[in-house]
Amino acid sequence: MAILETKHLIKHFDGVYAVNKLSLSFEPGRITGIIGPNGSGKSTLVNILTGLISPNDGEIIISGEKLTKIMPHYVPFLGMTRTFQDVRLFEQMPVLDNILVVLTERSIWPALFERHTRFHLDKAEAVLKQVGLWEKRDELARNLSYGQRKLLEIARVLAMSHSGTGDLEIVLFDEPFAGLFPEMIKTVSDVMRELRAQGKAVILIEHNMELIRELSDYLYVLDSGELLAEGKPEEVLARKDVIEAYLGE
Ligand SMILES: Nc1ncnc2c1ncn2[C@@H]1O[C@H](COP(=O)(O)OP(=O)(O)OP(=O)(O)O)[C@@H](O)[C@H]1O
Ligand SMILES: [Mg+2]
User: Fold this and answer.
1) How far apart are CA 244 and CA 238, in angstroms?
2) Are residue 221 and residue 175 in the same domain, yes or no?
3) pTM for the full model?
4) What is the extent of the structural domain holding 13?
5) Which residue out of 13, 17, 54, 226 has the highest number of ligand 1 atoms within 8 Å of its CB and is therefore the one to mutate?
6) Residue 85 lies in a domain
7) Residue 15 belongs to domain with CATH number
8) Handedness of CA 49, 50, 55, 60 (dihedral sign)
9) In terms of domains, do 164 and 200 share one?
10) Do 191 and 157 form a contact (C-beta atoms < 8 A)?
11) Ligand 1 atom closest to Cα of 47?
12) Domain count, the chain
């Protein structure tokens, strides 16, 4: 059973169809890959699903509930989180605080009176150690290297999945591996497998075909905003039209 579906989703910018009639389906406990040449609509799709952009037409169905539009502040309550192609962090905060903010209460009154408990600190320590950033816990986020910034975004997702509220169901990764060193790639791959094992629906946008082949259980290929192909990665990646869509860039 799908936890997230899109039906006939459309988004155009001044006549350019960034997303065109996309009907996709994402299941829990699966990594679903989305590939496609530059400008094929991958990030636009994620931006629609996380409420940064409103679609012109179509539906989004989350846990059986139909939505024509998603409000950004409502995204956590829909059990969703994402990472950005151009990493976004709380730049002026230390690494540790970037994790603590997602572990603590999201509503204002409890947050005002909340102390960071041992429980939160233990979780934060665990996820920062897992991605190899514990030594950097007091550093401001803006001082991290590019790869470390991406790892901090991933640690934040992990923290949400560990937060104990059990409400994170869908995780969208927009090119999480771009610019990472091999040992970092291994860390991020392991996080994705862990989220899958926890039963989350993982959505992975990625240009590295080796990683897509290795990690994804199901694959969608976009081309000019439209669905070009879907299926098992090994079958889809062998298709002539898919190879041509990439080579034709
Ligand atoms: N805010 C916007 N205003 C106008 N056009 C946009 C906007 N956002 C995206 N587009 C256009 O929509 C199309 C899809 O862009 P999108 O960023 O979704 O592609 P992508 O598949 O994520 O590409 P990449 O692999 O380079 O990240 C492109 O033609 C892009 O120029
Ligand atoms: Mg993109």
Assistant:
1) 11
2) yes
3) 0.91
4) 1-79+171-249
5) 13
6) no
7) 3.40.50.300
8) positive
9) no
10) yes
11) 18
12) 2
Same domain, 71 and 180: yes
How many residues make up the chain in this entry? 249
CA–CA separation, 25 vs 81, rounded Å? 17
**Closest atom, ligand 1, to C-alpha of 222:** 21
CB 170 within 8 A of CB 79: yes
CA distance 129 to 77: 27
Main-chain phi, psi angles of 9, to 5 degrees? -75, 135
Query: What per-residue string of b and e applies to 184-204 under the rule 16 or more CB within 10 Å gives b?
Result: bbebbbebbeebbebebbbbb
- Residue in 29, 12, 47 with CA at minimum distance from that of residue 170: 29
Amino acid in position 236: V
Q: Report yes or no on 84 lying in a domain.
A: no
- Cβ burial of 172 (10 Å; 0-12, 13-18, 19+) is buried
Taking only the tens place, the pLDDT of each residue in 88-138 is: 899 999 999 999 888 875 555 555 555 567 778 889 999 999 999 999 999
Q: What is the block-wise mean pLDDT of the chain (249 residues), using blocks of 10 residues?
A: 96 96 98 96 96 94 89 86 88 92 64 65 93 96 95 92 73 94 95 95 95 97 96 95 79
Dist. CA 119–CA 142, nearest whole Å = 26
Closest residue by CA, ligand 1 atom 2:
13
CB atoms within 10 A of CB 71: 11
| Beta-strand runs (E) in 36-184 | 57-62, 65-67, 80-83, 170-174
Q: Which pLDDT score is estimated for 74?
A: 84
Distance 40 CA to ligand 1 centre (A): 7
Which residues lie with the beta carbon below 6 Å from any ligand 1 atom?
Answer: 13, 16, 18, 36, 38-44, 85
